[in-house]
Design brief:
This protein is 26% helix and 24% strand. The protein has 205 residues and is α+β, with helices and mostly antiparallel strands. Among the domains are: 10-45, no CATH class; 89-129, no CATH class; 132-195. Strands 4-3-5 form a three-stranded antiparallel sheet, with no helix packed on it. A three-stranded antiparallel sheet has the order 9-8-10, with no helix packed on it. Strand 8 and strand 9 form a beta hairpin.
Length: 205
């Protein structure tokens, strides 16, 4: 009888969960926080002991898709396949703000992978819908502000040129410019901001 042995001794665990035969067994580990499967390893077990925490003897079935994670069930009796969107960008259905997904599982109702196209989009439970009235109001407000800035510039320029004319100090160019700026101001006042964003601004002198 040969005193040497080239075989690896295989350990065995009885139905009670304890080691019945000292040796090596292949185990499958999880991250004990997320319960996600992290890999397989060989574990040396001895009689009277058991498997380390987070280690299991049954092999998980590998998913066919990348967006699936392997996790251990809460009762520790089986492997489950769970939705995995980690690394993707989700959007709040309430604020439209983006955030990177860092958890395993289905998205809550407050998140969606669909990206809103405008700051006026609202979530209707299935998709983003643009609030066209709010969008239009914002465009008009923005155009009103632009019109006010242009009128302010025109008024300041006209006031200066008019004073030059009133005290007989205006040059011919300044007198001509005064008329052009007055025409420009008239055209500015005629701009209908309710047609935003289809605005044609008069050309500044």
């Amino acid at each position: 009888m040969n005193k040497y042995n080239l075989e690896i001794t295989t350990g065995e665990i009885g139905q009670d969960g304890y080691v019945s035969n000292t040796g090596w067994v292949k185990t499958y580990y999880i991250n004990e926080v997320t319960r996600e499967y992290i890999g397989a390893t060989m574990e040396h077990i001895t009689i009277g002991g058991g498997l380390p925490a987070g280690a299991y003897l049954d092999a998980p079935q590998l998913p066919e898709k990348d967006n699936i994670a392997i996790v251990r069930s809460e009762d520790e009796k089986s492997w489950l396949h769970a939705t995995d969107h980690r690394g993707k960008t989700a959007y709040s259905t309430e604020t439209r703000q983006p955030l990177e997904i860092d958890f395993i599982g289905d998205l809550p109702d407050t998140l969606t992978l669909l990206e809103p196209k405008t700051e006026f989009d609202k979530w209707n439970g299935k998709k983003w819908v643009t609030d066209t009235e709010a969008q239009k109001a914002a465009l008009i407000a923005e155009t009103d502000n632009e019109k006010a800035l242009r009128l302010s510039e025109a008024n300041s320029t006209i006031m200066y040129l008019q004073e030059s004319v009133d005290v007989d100090l205006a040059t011919e160019d300044e007198a001509a410019a005064l008329q052009e700026w007055k025409k420009y101001r008239v055209l500015l006042n005629r701009v209908d901001t309710s047609t935003a964003p289809n605005i044609e601004w008069p050309e500044k002198p």
